[in-house]
Design goal:
By secondary structure, the protein is of the alpha/beta class. It folds into 3 domains: 169 residues, Rossmann fold (3-Layer(aba) Sandwich); 177 residues, Alpha-Beta Complex (Argininosuccinate synthetase, chain A, domain 2), CATH 3.90.1260; 39 residues, Up-down Bundle (Single alpha-helices involved in coiled-coils or other helix-helix interfaces), CATH 1.20.5. It contains 14 helices and 14 strands. The protein has a 5-stranded parallel sheet, sandwiched between helices. The chain is elongated, with a radius of gyration of 25 Å. This is Argininosuccinate synthase.
């Protein structure tokens, strides 16, 4: 039996208090592991030092920003990944990479268990534990907040009693999770779905109602991957960071929704994802230009399934891997440029072009000289509607 447990550490109240709780409940030494997925706001070295001050015997910080963008955000762009057609999987995308490093760090240090600070009401407990189960099935998962029913009030009392260096206080009513792909805000007055969000909860986006000049950009995609903004080459991470700035300044990417949690309850959530909404809108429009009709129709069904798998914590499942193969195959011709107007909280597509375009002007034009032979339409419609005509005759005869 190992005497160590690796804790996914955010630097917040629950995981800071969780270090002591884990030591008390298990007798194990706690190793805190913090992952930089572009959450910003705090220096990662400060978070590392806070973990040590809270009682961790070791604190590991991993810079995973490029990996997160390349291996998790890019697949989401290719899949036009939106849960319930709206949520760009902000938190759901970061959990599998955190779980990957939890399992990896536990193996490297010889620990037999990992821990997280999730409650029993949310999706993240499932995402962490399902991912770890797929990667390292022999590891034990511990959730002190959930398993010991430790409330926020008790956590604050514990922190005060032990003089823990945490940032939260009773004056901070929101639960916030963020990374470079976006920001999620919940709890507090937002738990009443009738209450409108207030401007103070937003940090990634400016107020879209404030008058300002529009911003127009051109995004270049290469096989579904954003590779340039306004002609300047960018990595996926650079594209997301830049679009967060440009689209966020126009209030793009605000989402207020009631979503269906995996645990069976409905939850009111507020999200900000300026780059996410902009890139998915642009990518989907380029697909409309470059993917044939039947493949595009089928891909939309796959996209919904893909988003649900990711939301439900099954990133490392066999079905998810197989869907990735299909989605990647659809992207071989998704290269070109999309012009986007950012203004008033909207990312509006105003132009698209591609060397792989399936749009044929001569077929599409209504002007003289078009090559579409309209005389063939009559016979096509007769054959296309023949099954409906035959079944209608049967129905009429039966009813008559």
């Amino acid at each position: 039996m190992s005497d160590r447990v690796v804790l996914a550490y955010s630097g917040g109240l629950d995981t800071s208090v969780g270090i002591g709780w884990l030591k008390d409940a298990t007798g194990k030494e706690v190793v805190a592991m913090a992952i930089d997925v572009g959450q910003e706001g705090e220096d990662m070295e400060d978070i590392r030092q806070r973990a040590l001050a809270c009682g961790a015997v070791e604190a590991v910080v991993i810079d995973a920003r490029d990996e997160f963008a390349n291996d998790y955000i890019v697949p989401a762009i290719k899949a036009n990944g939106l849960y319930q057609k709206r949520y760009p999987l902000v938190s759901a995308l970061s959990r599998p990479i955190i779980a990957k490093y939890l399992a990896q760090t536990a193996k490297e240090l010889g620990a037999d268990s990992i821990a997280h600070g999730c409650t029993g009401m949310g999706n993240d407990q499932v995402r962490f534990e399902a991912a770890v189960a797929a990667l390292a099935p022999d590891l034990l998962c511990i959730a002190p907040i959930r398993d010991l029913a430790l409330t926020r009030d008790k956590a604050l009392e514990y922190a005060a009693k032990h003089n823990l260096p945490i940032a939260q206080s009773k004056k901070s009513p929101y639960s916030v999770d963020q990374n470079v792909w976006g920001r999620a805000v919940e709890t507090g007055f937002l738990e009443d779905p009738w209450n409108a969000p207030i401007e103070d909860i937003y940090t990634y986006t400016a107020d879209p109602s404030v008058p300002r000049e529009a911003t127009e950009i051109t995004i270049t995609f290469t096989q579904g991957v954003p590779t340039a903004i306004d002609g300047k080459a960018v990595t996926p991470l650079q594209a997301v960071v830049l679009l967060n700035k440009l689209a966020g300044a126009q209030g793009v990417g605000r989402i207020d929704m009631v979503e269906d949690r995996l645990v069976g309850i409905k939850s009111r959530e507020v999200y900000e994802s300026p780059a996410g909404i902009t890139l998915i809108n642009a990518h989907e429009e380029l697909e409309n230009l470059t993917i044939e009709r039947d493949l595009a129709r089928y891909k939309r069904r796959v996209e919904a399934e893909w988003a649900e798998l990711v939301y439900d914590g099954l990133w490392f499942s066999g079905l998810k891997r197989s869907l990735d193969v299909f989605i990647n195959d659809t992207q071989k011709y998704v290269s070109g440029e999309v012009r986007v107007k950012l203004h008033g909280g909207q990312a509006v597509i105003t132009g698209r072009r591609s060397d792989q375009s399936l749009y044929d002007f001569d077929l599409a034009t209504y002007d003289t000289g078009g090559t579409f032979d309209q005389s063939q339409a009559k016979g096509f419609i007769e054959i296309w509607s023949l099954p409906s005509k035959i079944s209608a005759r049967r129905d009429q005869a039966t009813q008559g």
